[in-house]
Model the fold of this input.
Amino acid sequence: MELAAIQGKIYEIRGCRVMLDRDLAEIYQVETRVLNQAVKRNMERFPEDFMFQLTDEELQDWRSQIVMSNSIKMGIRRNPYAFTELGVAMLSSVLNSRTSIQINIGIMRAFVAVRQLLANPPGDWVSELQDEVKELKEYIEDVFADYNDMNEDTRLQLDLINETLAELQTKNRHMNKTRNPVGYVKAEE
Done:
């Protein structure tokens, strides 16, 4: 399996980078229940910092990360186990075959690559992000400046309209004289 495919199966749960039992079973090409049975037979090799079972809340968070909500379609009947890097390393002693050893080496490389990427992001990537953030800040400042200018212009125009209406009302009051009614009936004098 390719390194990138394995890296895509590494999640951040409880502040640790972990892989779930179902993903490990897929990589090792065994059923999830077979992997879990092998682990349960050797529980003394898997303390809490090597492996833990997800809580219901963590499972919901994980489901939202992978955009799946139907546990029936996912084949999950119980909360999955999460294996830390140390737990994955211990799996090679539990699943003792040539295939599992080779796969385990690939998984260890994926964990190391993820750790290195997070510890030392590529310089050009960081500078590119900084440039984008700077451009966005400048754009937002320009938009706010235009918005403020537009608000000031609008306020001035509304003030002018109100003044004009007030003048028209006073002018209308002064010019308001009695008029003859319209129609065929003559007004009484």
Summary: The longest helix spans residues 123-175.
